[in-house]
Design goal:
CATH architecture of the largest domain in chain A: 3-Layer(aba) Sandwich
Strand order of the largest sheet of chain A: 7-6-5-8-9
Distance between the termini of chain A: 20 Å
Strand content of chain A: 5-15%
Helix content of chain A: 40-55%
Largest sheet of chain A: 5 strands, parallel
CATH superfamily of the largest domain in chain A: Aspartate/ornithine carbamoyltransferase
Shape of chain A: globular
Structural class of chain A: alpha/beta
Oligomer: homotrimer
Radius of gyration of chain A: 21 Å
CATH topology of the largest domain in chain A: Rossmann fold
Number of strands of chain A: 11
Order of helices and strands of chain A: HHEHEHEHEHEHEHEHEHHHEEEHHH
Number of domains of chain A: 2
CATH class of the largest domain in chain A: Alpha Beta
Largest interface: A-C, 31 and 30 residues
Number of helices of chain A: 15
């Protein structure tokens, strides 16, 4: 808990800032203005403070928060459920396993059918390159049409709970964690954060976190280093965005394939495995063509390719190279912890144990980031609702 | 949204009408008096108006709304969940897949076990002819006994979310849709509605919608035409009911196997596939006897039989025959849309697209029909609760 | 409903008693002091009375109640959901089928990840001897660490919804049922209760109920008789506890393998099947070693062993031996009812039918026992919250 948090000054600061989130969705941080991101972070901190000081917000008195997980999830599902509950919404899960495959008419129709009383639809669709964000946009367009044409009388906000491209509720939780670690967003300027690939024997881990981290942290003046073996770089578009944001924020963005060089004097390290962009794209193509044998071959290739980089492990030696030997270690969890849940993995047991509780706290921002997105995207007067509640305490 | 809706006059009208729904279930519309149906429609309209004008009702402060889907469903499940949420109930799903098969003692016991704090149990059981309604009645009888004997301290209402015989929440939503299309229930008198069979390559679609439509619309003085190939007629009992209701309401009920004749000058058309009654009955018998081979054969026969009627498609030519060439097209969704989600199906893409948003709006009444049923069946003073809320706004 | 229940005197009595449940879990009744158990029973009765007299409690205004069923359950899941709803918590299910196997780090991590806004975690884990209670303790320890280290800002209570050792929400419901049958806890003194093994053709029924019954009823001065065939006795530790509690309470604890002798003059009989402790322990070992063939063999052996005791059926002859021929028959449900849902089972159809509604009422205490545990374990001022609500009526 942040005991020094001043809720009045946070609310005043918010009132000075022009953000444009009402009746919009939250899909990709790089589509949002700095002010939008800043406001979500600020509202999330206010909500977390209110929760931790045992204050209840009266936000919604009815309405559904629908979660649509196209891939299994426990943590994010319950974070979403927690956010809905905190704001007064009832959580209702779509159960993909009971549904037909969605495309075209089916999406338009289903989305309208479930939205008659929905305030928010949170979606996870992170399995296939080129699909998740596209799906979310189709949902959003269906809602736009339904709302415009009078089918639904309120427009639920669509919130990205992880797609093929970005994972905004994760990366913004990560950002709040870093912010509170250093004390202030301003203090992130010039701090070196390393988003590093790390070894895993598992196949097909999404690129959403590394892509989300380099494009988000670069907006806050950080010295962002992407470190990965040749062949594991995200799409050039994403790299260009990180570069552009760094230029605007006065930060720096660099790419290296040398983990030691990357860790040198780092303030924050985020070592995590992900699948090569090319493989993930090829995978989608094979799936689209229904080529199962090709998929098996691809999986084998990918795991073999990974195994060339088994030494990409965040261990004590690497950590000792960081600023004063004590950079903040981050992970979106669950991690492949060498000697604990795998033989060879992203991080050694010793390093992980040292930062384990920190990674739990890192995750603890997520329900509040989600709640802030819901409030700002579906309420015109989110700030005054908070103020009104405070007066009533 | 219906901007001309006058809530005071709706409430006054309700107070003039004697309905008898409290501590009853809503299983089949033909078991209900006209006044019961009328009252559910009226309360549903009031609730929809309140929702759309951002008013919140305080109805229940606690209690569960239990949904029991013995067949998969997304739309009705979320409509039920929405209705519960709107009234202040928590939605809890029974998960049939995790349950044993229910019969005899098991039903009595399970029903009591889940009802200690339940206000409503919504059930879908539409797969097997002769089973769904029977199951719901067993649930209702178990609740009667449990309530009478002091096992449960409130009697949850049982609401039919689709059975083998009827689909009241769907057909009453359809009715509200038609009513608002023509402006007033009185204006339905003499309007021609065609409940027509249409081609589908799929097996075993329930008869609940056609049976429900012809028995409900005939109570409102409509000129009801049932149109289907020989062999696809519902059970004679149902036809007799439609006939009887037509006589009482001053309407008309006819059966034809000629789609062109049926569509001629129609005001409303509802083209939809269903399985022959005989086949659905035979299917239940085979299932009861555990004859899997017989079931496969039956499915093949049914699909072959359907394929004799591939020209039973709602297309532009047929629509041009209707009143001024612009009858209201209706469907309970999802539809088999020729050229969109199937090669040959119930309706052409062009016709469907023209009425697509209308079918979405048609579905939009369902959460409010369900909510009205819950209120009227489980509260003695439903009308005064609404009035009390209005005064507090 | 108990019309003579005096809520004021119940609250006054509670204020005289020192119980120690706040920020504790409720895992095994034998770990609790008599005052703790007494207080849960008293609060459960108050809550049941309030519910039945249509009073609503304002307890929690937000927060999740998480149910974690590692084995399928409908009844207890909905009892838990009902309790959460009654207190103002939202029920969120963990879905074990969608989760990886939990051990070590995974438990610690997952438990923290789901608990950011949880007030209670209800767990059922009753399948494997030596595992369920251990799992619950690991969950509790993870919560302790998370709370202590500031990961979570409230410590959710862990409630045992059945483990390998005990089934406190069941046995305490049973106790309230007996208490209300005889009129007062004091009147249980000297009453003879027979916890008897009975025949079932099914494999692997947990020992939690018999173990829970003999250790709980012995605390209230009852004349507790455990009756089972040689080889079906619970672990000696449990028998010792029952013996010890009987000595303290002035009751009596005896073991017999003669059902007739046991039923003689009994006031209460609880005939129910369970698997031999040795077999359940061996089963866990075989599972741990992944020996599927051994497991099949064991199942066969167990069912064969059971079949030596097919005459262990609660029938009219046995019942006629009890006090005035009308002992209270109890069962945790569902029962194996001979001639109804099985050919040979725990109880005859005739005996069961006579007590059927009683067994339903027995189960009806469970939502309130759970609610009382939630209140007392997660609120410091549970009693004054109830009092405050009463004043506001």
């Amino acid at each position: 808990m942040n005991n020094n948090f001043n809720i009045s000054s946070a609310l005043n600061a918010l009132k000075q800032v022009k953000f444009d989130l009402f009746q919009r969705d939250f899909l990709l941080t790089w589509e949002k203005e700095y002010e939008d991101i800043w406001s979500v972070l600020k509202v999330a901190e206010i909500l977390k403070h209110l929760y931790e000081t045992n204050n209840t917000l009266e936000v919604f008195r009815r309405g559904l928060g629908i979660s649509w997980f196209r891939d299994n999830s426990t943590r994010t599902r319950i974070a979403f459920s927690s956010a809905c509950n905190f704001l007064g919404l009832s959580h209702q899960e779509m159960d993909e396993q009971k549904l037909q495959i969605y495309h075209g008419e089916t999406i338009r129709e289903t989305v309208n059918m479930i939205s008659f009383m929905a305030q928010v639809i949170g979606i996870r669709d992170d399995m296939y390159m080129g699909k998740g964000n596209k799906f979310m946009k189709e949902v959003a367009e269906s809602l736009d049409e339904g709302f415009k044409e009078g089918v639904i009388s309120q427009r639920p906000a669509v919130i990205n709970l992880q797609c093929d491209l970005d994972h905004p509720t994760q990366t913004m939780s990560d950002l709040l964690h870093i912010k509170n670690y250093f004390g202030h967003l301003e203090k992130l300027k010039g701090k070196k954060i390393v988003m590093s690939w790390a070894y895993s024997s598992r196949y097909g881990k999404p690129l959403s976190v590394p892509q989300g981290i380099i494009t988000l942290m670069s907006r806050f003046g950080m010295d962002v280093v992407l470190c990965c073996p040749e062949g594991y770089k995200p799409h050039q578009d994403i790299l260009d965005k990180a570069e552009k944001f760094s230029n605007i924020s006065g930060g720096n963005f660099q790419i290296t394939d040398n983990m030691k060089k990357a860790f040198k004097d780092a303030d924050v390290v985020y070592p995590k495995s992900w699948a090569p962009y090319q493989i993930m794209t090829k995978r989608t193509e094979l799936i689209n063509r229904g080529q199962e044998k090709g998929l098996e071959k691809l999986e084998k290739e990918c795991i073999e390719q990974n195994s060339n980089f088994k030494d990409w492990v965040c261990d004590e030696n690497l950590m000792s190279l960081t600023k004063d030997g004590k950079a903040l270690y981050m992970h979106c969890l669950p991690a492949d912890i060498q000697g604990l849940n795998c033989k060879e993995g992203e991080v050694t047991k010793k390093v992980f144990e040292q930062y384990r509780l920190d990674t739990y706290k890192e995750a603890g921002y997520k329900p509040f980031i989600i709640a802030a997105m819901i409030m700002l995207c579906s309420l015109q007067d989110a700030i005054s609702i908070i103020e009104k509640n405070l007066k009533e305490f």
